[in-house]
Amino acid sequence: MTEKHDDMTTKNTPMDAGPRHLVRLRLTITGQVQGVGFRPFVYRTAREAGLTGAVWNDPSGVVIEVQGPEHVARNFPDLLLDRLPPLARITSLEVGEAEPVAREEGFVIATSSSGQGHSVLISPETATCADCVAEIMDPCDRRHRYPFTNCTNCGPRYTITRRIPYDRDKTSMACFPMCPACQAEYDDPMDRRFHAQPNACPRCGPRVWLAGQKGDVLARNDDALLETANLLARGAVLAVKGLGGFHLACDAGDPEAVDALRSRKNRRDKPLAVMVPDLRTARRLARVSRAEAELLTGHVRPIVLLKAEGDSPLAPAVAPDTDYIGVMLPYTPLHHVLLADFARAASGEIPALVMTSGNLSADPICLGNREALDRLSGIADAWLLHDRDILIRTDDSVVRVLPETGRTQFLRRARGYTPSPVFLAQDGPCVLGTGPELKNTLCVTKKDQAFVSQHIGDMENPATLGFFAEIAAHLPMILETGPQLVVHDLHPDYLTTRWAGSQANLPTKALQHHFAHIHAVLAENRHLGPVLGLALDGTGYGGDGTIWGGEFLVVDNQTLEHDRAGHLAHVRLPGGEAAIREPWRIAQAFLHDLGIRNGPWPWLEDFGQASRVVSQMLDKGINSPPTSSCGRLFDAVAAMLGLADTITYEGQAAIRLEHAQDTSVTDAYPLKSRKAGPMLVADTHELFAMIHGDVLNNVPARTIARRFHLGLARGLAEAAAGLAADRGLATVALSGGCLLNLTLATELPRLLGKAGLNVLTHRHLPPGDGCISLGQAAWGRRFLAAHRA
Ligand SMILES: [Zn+2]
Ligand SMILES: [Zn+2]
């Protein structure tokens, strides 16, 4: 809000200002004010207040002129702010005086010319609002059970928008001409569907049908929905076309159905999200705090990780490694109808559906009907399809509430959040960050806003690179901007690095992965100046022949000073990538370094021969790159405890290790740091030796797991506090995938805060690699600024 506005509204209105004294004000508003019912809202508010004037879009945002008695007109900005429509987000509001217009009658919504530069943002997808849910559940309503019901307060936006400005003819609704009833709603400023671009009804809008393996139609419209619910209740796996792509669905209470889905999708252990019809059902799976309930029932409706309690009515295979379960509530009318039907059809204990991304493990989520029939054949038994095209694929977002602070932590930021921007501290040039290799997102900045894309996926195959290129073209287009610089990872062979190099006439710069992590936290917190960054991560190319991932980094985003001040001790990864899939190799590397060559190790029974080969690799130093990764330390400890010899998804060993903790244990292993030249090195070998000793002494794994977590947090906090004091730094920034570990995510800020340090953590993006593109772009802007000055 500008100060100007505050001055205006706090000023007392003189009592002698009579009703005949007309004032005309001009309000300029920027933010998320397009496609959210903002202009009709302004219209209704002005009419109710008895003011005349007009509202229209222009390149600087939404402009409103209101005219009336001074005290009424001057109160108007407050009136707007008090009653904003649920989806509107105002980023600035300026109020100025305008010349009163003689004999003005009424208030109008003026037509906006298209093709203007836009300070108005496309809104993200929004969960079906209560009014629309009431209509689809009402047998007398013309939209009873209609799966594409929406209004200006809810429905699809980003995923159906081809170009801006956001108008029906530029969305995938262009091919559905409205029937007279829908058109009348669309044209009526007092209607909830005034200018609702995706407005539709069963007469004129998109339709659903159920298709078999060969694309043959099994049922249409309402019958298709009923039959889908019946098939699910009988244990089938269905591909369901949704808002941002396809889901694979099955009965979450049916162990055979869940096993079938897992084996066909080739996804062995990674937790599956479930959808339940309502909050009451969610509470049967987990204790739900107030903050969690707000996320579950809010207008985004992400997947929320909840801590399961008691005996779960879900099939054990839904989330075998953890007692956290990903739960979401219906967010489209189709989901509302489907879940209600399924609750009636299912004989099981709880009406919960597994709803997982409809893709093969490494590919992006499916988007088109043909694509889904083709790529999901062999996985799905039937397909619930519809004819509203998804133009931009977007996965479900995943969040959780941190217990101590009540803050929302992102695990994946996509549907419902994209393309809302992250607000930066300063204006700057447009820069594109290409993001990391795994869990890729990309980022485009415009002025003081950074637009981080939805989760794109692992950049390992042409399909994902295609999706990446699509978004890299789409995002600048809808923002009406063009990058002046592309920032990519330091790794020369990443697909994103090569893509950056292929962009004709665009300068490129490389930024190391973990420095990008720290720049992302700084950008989200709008922090300018030097910090000590702790990047606790999986693995990232270091550029010095080692793989980084447990780093103490001095980062200054004003002077762009970058200094690696310390790291976790190196351990080798025998077999390189193979060691990431088989954590026992890293445990063996630790023991090898400690001179422990023989032992009753948990993995010998399964990997005896391979273990001997690993031993030789370590002796001869073959294919065993050194790493300082914190994630690999978690892996090694989990393997040492027999919790994870091998893993089937990223983070699995650490998830099991965290889950294993006996939280009543309060003592910790020491993690000491020593100076090695100018570098501080945290001695993880000594810590590992103590773990090995406790394993030999039959100390329970639960106790060891707890001592490890606490020791790591305390050792890192001590080392950070020491380094910060040495360097005269007051602020510590935390980033990296290891901060998805709840123990580290709560203990580290607490301990660092206790040491008198100001702690910065992620607010709008995940601490994992989903934040890298923001860090790259934010750094790139500083780089351009520094080299232009
Ligand atoms: Zn609605
Ligand atoms: Zn209609």
Architecture overview:
The chain contains 23 helices and 32 strands. The strands form 5 sheets. Strands 8-7-15-9-10-14-11-13-12-16-17 form an 11-stranded mixed sheet, sandwiched between helices. Strands 29-30-26-25-24-31-32 form a 7-stranded mixed sheet, sandwiched between helices. The N terminus is likely disordered. The structure holds zinc ion (2 copies). The site of one zinc ion has 8 residues, from helix 4.
Quaternary class:
single chain
Proportion in β-strands: 15-25%
Structural class: alpha/beta
Write down the overall geometry.
globular
Task: Provide keyphrases for this structure.
single chain, 789 residues, alpha/beta, 23 helices, binds zinc ion
Short description:
The chain is built from 23 helices and 32 strands. It is an alpha/beta fold.
Show the helix and strand layout.
Blueprint: H1 3-10, E1 22-34, H2 38-49, E2 52-58, E3 61-69, H3 70-82, E4 89-98, E5 107-109, E6 120-122, H4 130-136, H5 180-187, E7 208-211, E8 217-220, H6 221-233, E9 238-241, E10 246-251, H7 255-265, E11 274-275, H8 279-282, H9 290-297, E12 303-307, E13 324-328, H10 333-345, E14 353-357, H11 369-375, E15 382-386, E16 398-401, E17 408-412, E18 422-423, E19 431-433, E20 443-446, E21 449-452, H12 462-479, E22 485-489, H13 495-501, E23 508-511, H14 513-524, E24 530-541, E25 547-556, E26 562-568, E27 571-572, H15 577-581, H16 584-593, H17 604-620, E28 626-627, H18 630-640, H19 652-660, E29 673-676, E30 679-682, H20 684-696, H21 701-727, E31 731-735, H22 742-754, E32 758-760, H23 772-788
Parallel strand pairs: 1-6, 2-5, 9-15, 11-13, 12-16, 19-22, 22-23, 24-31, 26-30, 31-32
Antiparallel strand pairs: 1-3, 1-4, 2-3, 7-8, 7-15, 9-10, 10-14, 11-14, 12-13, 16-17, 18-21, 19-20, 20-21, 24-25, 25-26, 27-28, 29-30
Helix pairs in contact: 2-3, 6-10, 14-23, 16-17, 16-18, 18-19, 20-21, 21-22
The structure holds zinc ion (2 copies).
One zinc ion binds at residues 178-179, 181-182, 200-201, 203-205.
